[in-house]
Amino acid sequence: MLKFIVLSISMMILSVPAINFILPEIRDYLGITQAQSELISTIPSLTTLITLLFASFVTKFVGIKKTVFIGLLLTGLGGVVPVLTSNFTIIIIARAVLGVGLGLYSPLAIELINLLFDENERAKLMGFRGAAEQLGRSLITLAAGLLFIFNWNLSFVVYGLAFILAFLFYKFVPEVSNQKANEHKAKEKVQTKEKLSPIVYLIALFMSIVILNGAAIDIRFPALAAEMMGEGFNSSYIIAFKPVVGIFAGLAFGKLYKRFGKNLLYFATACLILASLLVAYSGESMIPLTIGFYLAGLVPTWIGPFVFMTIAKKASPANRELAMSILLVALHGTVFLMTPVVRLIEFILGNDALTAAYPVLSGLLFVTLVCMWIFAPKLMKKY
Asked: What is the pTM of this model?
């Protein structure tokens, strides 16, 4: 039971995009712009990022268990408020609260596995935790799609799952003392004066461009699908299957990495470039658009583990936390900045079509990939 509950709290971590498919409906119903509707999806990334910066202080004062409990309550509260209102400002504030909740507890979802289970269980549970994230995203998206049949507001009811998880977590998961957490960190941390390897910054830049492309496809897919298929088109069933693709791709990562090594990174990036181009030139056809959407789903499950493994190798134990923080800032910051960056590209091109920016984004990713191919091996050897 303990393992199930500790893993189940990860089901909410990737829940932010679960309502992306109703963004076109919200846009038309509220009479807001495309950029404003996308803010509903991206604002949680900003507040998650800000919360991550002080989450450790909250944990220090109230403890790990209460921090997770509060985080889940805020996730549920921010998630379900849009059920009760159609006011754009209130919805944005609620989504911001959702991001605060996720920022409070999501880092502890991993830490709890390290603290509550022995070394033999950790590796297995870490794999299951990743699967729980993807499964949660898929099931929550499917449930939101079913509720959308009745009303777009009702789709937000799915975030009520956080309240159930909060209750189960508080009832069945024991408190983990801050002293034990500090002792655990002390065992892993070896003090050193080594400087942070420049490869960390190059990887953060690379991941920012990768996330920029992936988020642009994820967030705009429902609007593109609605543009092709007509107003009110429910794309939740297409979106809900994407995490399933991610799960199978993740299961294959170990064997693929063992066989292809760093070439898997280049192949995954090439897949994302191709995905962006398929979306860009899909025209009026759902087939290339959907293929591009699913193809983009392979990328995080292949590039993500590769990047984290590289940082674990190249960053000293004392610098590892800083390296991870830099990467998290890059990831969440890029998701939030996706819409302004895409709008800037459209402004420069003088074209506000939903697909206008994708060729530029894919070109930017290609240039970054070349930089990785040229400079990463040199930095890996030098530092």
From this structure: 0.79
